[in-house]
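Quick one: sequence plus flavin-adenine dinucleotide SMILES, need structure tokens.
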Amino acid sequence: MMPNNSPWLHQLTVTRPIDTLQSDIATDVAIVGAGIAGVMTAYFTLKNTDKQVLLIEGSRVAHGATGHNAGQIVFEFEREFYSLVEEYGLSMAADAENSVRGAWILLEELYQEAKLTTPMSSFMGYNGFTDIERVVEELKNNALRKEAGMQIFQVYISEEASDLDLIPKEYRELYNLVPHTDVLSLLETHDKRYIAVMSEKKGCVNAAVLIEEIVGYLLSTFKGRFVLCEETHIKEVVLEKDLAILRAKEYSITADKVVLCTNGFEKFSIINNAGADIDTKFHHMVRGKVGYMAGYLEELKHPPIALAFYDQTAEDVESVEDPYDQKPYIYMTRRPYELEKNEKHNLICVGGPDRSLDDTTEYATEAEYSEEATTEISDFLHTTYKNAPKDDIDFKFKWHGLMGYTPTSIRVVGEEPKNKVLMYNLGCNGVGILTSIYGGKRIADILSGAVLAPSLFDPRAVYFGAKTLSRKKRIRNIATG
Ligand SMILES: Cc1cc2nc3c(=O)[nH]c(=O)nc-3n(C[C@H](O)[C@H](O)[C@H](O)COP(=O)(O)OP(=O)(O)OC[C@H]3O[C@@H](n4cnc5c(N)ncnc54)[C@H](O)[C@@H]3O)c2cc1C
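Reply:
Sure thing.
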């Protein structure tokens, strides 16, 4: 049995001293959780406001989902665009997607500003599909994007695919017919069941190394305004009318605002002394999933790629009420990887197998790996990836991470309607690097006093619960709180 062995933490070297909370302290903004969401929230708050920021982490920087993910930079909601349009309307759904896609630029600007050196690559990535009706769902998404004046994703369908007549005529301009071999070649697969491919910009980064480097930049650039406390678990957040008191160890932190960037897990309580109860709602808001991944090394001879394999039917997507219950898809990346200094390989990482958690507090980072996941990932590689080793695969790394799913499957970003002292940038929802970055910027905008248009990231949108109200009512509620 293998413990949780992440390639990203393997490469993480921390040279700065580890500070923990040693006394009572007061700050303008207390951010809880130093994964990518907390670090990016700290960065934008320091950059765009003049506030003091205290970043508090129960364990160490990047040791949560950020250090246990697939490191694939990709725009993705774990929901179809058309379902967001049905629920929130075209304009709000389009704003949300455009904002998260825009996080690519925020990340590139940060690279330039801080002269970051953590390797990051970007290239065209591909999503493959086995079912023509499932592809029609993507075309439906694209038709709505076109209507909203948005960028659409290129779709290539095999001219040999059966049931091409199931594609509605009005979608004809939204895809290209190509030889089946082109589809297989883009996906680097010999699995002939894949009959279509959709392309989009994707990238690869070690998010743990990246945010450690950003933390170093913040500590040296914002001396006197930025404090980081690790190994400081917040056990209670008490909200008053204009301030919050956070309890950690025997000490108290007093803050004008507290931003929870905790991925969603409730090993702490919230007491609201200035309004209705928040605790119960918050605690039941986020459910958990453990995502399993495995990676092996090969000679550095192929360029980086990021692929996703949707062996799903349209029925698989439409028949589930809740996106949380959706059949998983497999995602894969290949990137240069330095195992030890100057020892360069390609690292092939595959994820997809997951396990739902009834009680999210059950998750333990140190829990052993699931051997069922190894079998599933090996089977996938042998049947699908054309460059996979023919024999048993020697996985150098096997790891798991926790994903928090909100009821809407959308990250929650903004002020708690029952007490605006409390803010959130949380809810991993499967794919969260770009959304965490955008979330950090949005929180800083709110803190700097900007009046933002209602958004489907607003906590109220989550509280009112997906599909329980008519769309008009939901939007009215989101707008008025
Ligand atoms: C297997 C897997 C694969 C993934 N693949 C991708 C991918 O390829 N692309 C992508 O975009 N996203 C991916 N994700 C999702 C992405 O990694 C997450 O959305 C993102 O890292 C979340 O960052 P975060 O900062 O919100 O959470 P985390 O990184 O989990 O950080 C939350 C932090 O809060 C701390 N904390 C919690 N409670 C307290 C408390 N009470 N006191 C103090 N500290 C506390 C935790 O210790 C933790 O460090 C994947 C996730 C998993 C698990």
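The chain has a mean pLDDT of 91. The chain has two domains: 22-68+207-285+408-480, 122-201+287-405.
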